[in-house]
């Protein structure tokens, strides 16, 4: 590498969201970036992260205390997964890479963007790093659907085996086989298989949901796969009421009619579990407008009020892939790697220039949006 070639400094911050065990950069990807020769990588110590600090230091990363990114050099690119704590409203002078959840007018979106404006910082939102065909370069979609399907089937089993009892807290699993074996054991005790509908079945997320149902032993005829062709007529859909488990995996980009309504769930139905993997909870166009709060790994299921005595429980955990943190992180980071390698040329690399343009467009939209 020429001595005049600028070094790109990535600063992997500690995740602060409860039960978040994933990482935007895996040790394997850090090693590849450092071998590339144009990168310096600082990693904040994090006890919750699935990868030990030593896994990063062994490949050449510098380890620093957690939550120290505010003191990082101004040219460091602060890299993380989930959004920053809501109770911190200090200006943001750095460039950040993360899922900020503020480009679709979610609750508090202006507060998030205002911090960048005040600090003269820049946001590269991971959700909107897209290739020339408009496809995301990296996503947790497959494992979001995979783990969402697992929660849905396990929740249905819990209703059958432990009616009326609270669903236990969800802990991360060392690998997917342990999770699959657990589900299979529960299904064997019940003696019948649920019917599960996956909405958005052709996408990354939906394919993950279908994959888990198959690996758990659900017969193919019990897995109802819907995508845009099936929803073209517009909701709400009685077909959702006729299954045991509904897993929503769509990518919401504009207003659509609701998939389900309160009137439907008050009426006679088979449905008893909804997993909203998409989690457009505060989006004004949420197609499942029967709830307004996210659930957590400690309290995974929300009881939906209904005049129908049959229970209906909903899961709206917005970081489901952390149930399988090592597999999910490795896949995501490897998918992101080719784009990260372009960071030293981000002033001209199309993925990064598009992301920067979109940031400035969203900032400008604050003045014209109520």
Automatic annotation (TrEMBL):
- Domain (Alanine dehydrogenase/pyridine nucleotide transhydrogenase N-terminal) spans 11-147
Q: Which residues form the active site?
A: 82, 101
Record domain Alanine dehydrogenase/pyridine nucleotide transhydrogenase NAD(H)-binding: where: 179-316
Pathway stated in the Swiss-Prot or TrEMBL entry:
Amino-acid biosynthesis; L-lysine biosynthesis via AAA pathway; L-lysine from L-alpha-aminoadipate (fungal route): step 3/3
- GO-annotated molecular function: saccharopine dehydrogenase (NAD+, L-lysine-forming) activity
Listed A to Z, the keywords are: Amino-acid biosynthesis, Disulfide bond, Lysine biosynthesis, NAD, Oxidoreductase
State the disulfide connectivity: 205-249
Q: Which Pfam families match?
A: AlaDh_PNT_N
Record-listed NAD(+) binding positions: 135, 203-204, 227, 231, 251, 277, 317-320
Provide the reaction this enzyme catalyses: L-saccharopine + NAD(+) + H2O = L-lysine + 2-oxoglutarate + NADH + H(+)
Q: What is its EC number?
A: 1.5.1.7
Question: Listed GO cellular component terms?
Answer: cytoplasm
The record's listing under CDD domains reads: SDH (cd12188)
Q: Name one GO biological process term.
A: lysine biosynthetic process via aminoadipic acid
Q: Subunit structure, briefly?
A: Monomer.
Family label: Belongs to the AlaDH/PNT family.
Annotated protein name in UniProt: Saccharopine dehydrogenase [NAD(+), L-lysine-forming]
Which species is the source of this protein?
Coemansia reversa (strain ATCC 12441 / NRRL 1564)
């Amino acid at each position: 590498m020429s001595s005049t070639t600028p070094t790109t400094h990535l600063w992997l911050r500690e995740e602060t969201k409860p039960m978040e065990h994933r990482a935007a950069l895996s040790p394997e990807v850090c090693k590849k970036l450092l071998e590339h020769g144009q990168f310096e990588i600082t990693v904040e110590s994090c006890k919750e992260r699935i990868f030990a600090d030593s896994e990063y230091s062994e490949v050449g990363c510098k380890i620093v205390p957690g939550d120290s990114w505010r003191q990082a050099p101004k040219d460091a690119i602060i890299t993380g997964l989930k959004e920053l704590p809501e109770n911190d409203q200090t200006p943001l002078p750095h460039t950040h890479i993360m899922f900020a959840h503020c480009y679709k007018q979610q609750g508090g979106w202006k507060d998030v963007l205002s911090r960048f404006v005040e600090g003269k910082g820049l946001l590269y939102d991971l959700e909107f790093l897209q290739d020339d065909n408009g496809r995301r370069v990296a996503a947790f979609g497959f494992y979001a659907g995979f783990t969402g399907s697992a929660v849905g089937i396990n929740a249905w089993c819990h209703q059958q085996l432990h009616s009326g009892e609270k669903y236990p807290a969800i802990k991360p699993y060392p690998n997917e086989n342990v999770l699959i074996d657990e589900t299979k054991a529960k299904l064997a005790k019940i003696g019948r298989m649920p019917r599960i509908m996956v909405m958005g079945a052709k996408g990354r997320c939906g394919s993950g949901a279908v994959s888990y149902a198959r690996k758990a032993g659900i017969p193919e005829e019990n897995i109802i796969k819907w995508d845009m062709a099936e929803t073209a007529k517009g909701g709400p859909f009685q077909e959702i009421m006729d299954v045991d488990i509904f897993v929503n995996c769509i990518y919401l980009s504009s207003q659509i009619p609701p998939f389900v309504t309160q009137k439907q769930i008050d009426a006679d139905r088979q449905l008893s579990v909804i997993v909203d993997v998409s989690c457009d909870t505060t989006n004004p166009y949420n197609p499942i407008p029967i709830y307004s709060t996210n659930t957590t790994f400690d309290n995974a299921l929300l009881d939906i009020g209904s005049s129908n005595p049959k229970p209906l429980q909903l899961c709206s955990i917005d970081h489901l892939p952390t149930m399988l943190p090592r597999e999910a992180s490795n896949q995501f980071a490897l998918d992101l790697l080719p784009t990260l390698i372009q960071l030293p040329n981000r002033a001209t690399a199309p993925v990064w220039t598009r992301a920067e343009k979109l940031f400035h467009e969203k900032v400008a939209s604050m003045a014209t949006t109520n």
